[in-house]
Amino acid sequence: xxxxxxxxxxxxxxxxxxxxxxxxxxxxxxxxxxxxxxxxxxxxxxxxxxxxxxxxxxxxxxxxxxxxxxxxxxxxxxxxxxxxxxxxxxxxxxxxxxxxxxxxxxxxxxxxxxxxxxxxxxxxxxxxxxxxxxxxxxxxxxxxxxxxxxxxxxxxxxxxxxxxxxxxxxxxxxxxxxxxxxxxxxxxxxxxxxxxxxxxxxxxxxxxxxxxxxxxx
Length: 217
Ligand SMILES: [Zn+2]
Ligand SMILES: [Zn+2]
Hints:
This protein has helices at 21-30, 45-53, 88-97, 139-153, 185-193, 206-215; strands at 3-9, 35-41, 59-68, 71-76, 101-104, 128-133, 157-160, 172-176, 197-201. It has one domain (3-215): TIM Barrel (Alpha-Beta Barrel), CATH 3.20.20.140. By secondary structure, it is an alpha/beta fold. The chain starts with a strand and ends with a helix. Bound molecules: zinc ion (2 copies). One zinc ion binds next to loops.
């Protein structure tokens, strides 16, 4: 059975977001997702809280978006705080030590502290590239560049909304193919590592971009 999981969602535990954990659950279900990864900026606090709540009918993967020296890096299935400001190589190491996988979100993005990927990253153990990120701008060019890089590196491609407001949760997501019934987080992480996934997504519509901008103030 395929599962739809938004692998990049922020909550009020991020400095630039006010979405409550309750809203994450509500909107994720409303928008037809089977699961979310909570990836707040430099903290796992909200992610661990939501995992503990075990919301009925929603898979919750704990994660983090770490600010490395080169830009943002996602850690999925991460349960302890990965400290910011290390090199990407060191940060990938720390994520792996914690049992997680490392994914570059919004590569090449110039307004979002996107990492400019290079071919050394695979030797550092990078696990995947996020190729569909709804807040990327311009969405199609960024998705194309990310996708081309992932293919050249032979790395799996993920999708996530990078939501900072509830309405956009699920605008991009990752389909986990052939997932078994009631999968554990480890099964999903394994499927991502093996590339048994398909990224799906679209850009945030302009009305919602404006809403997000006004919410920041
Ligand atoms: Zn980011
Ligand atoms: Zn993000």
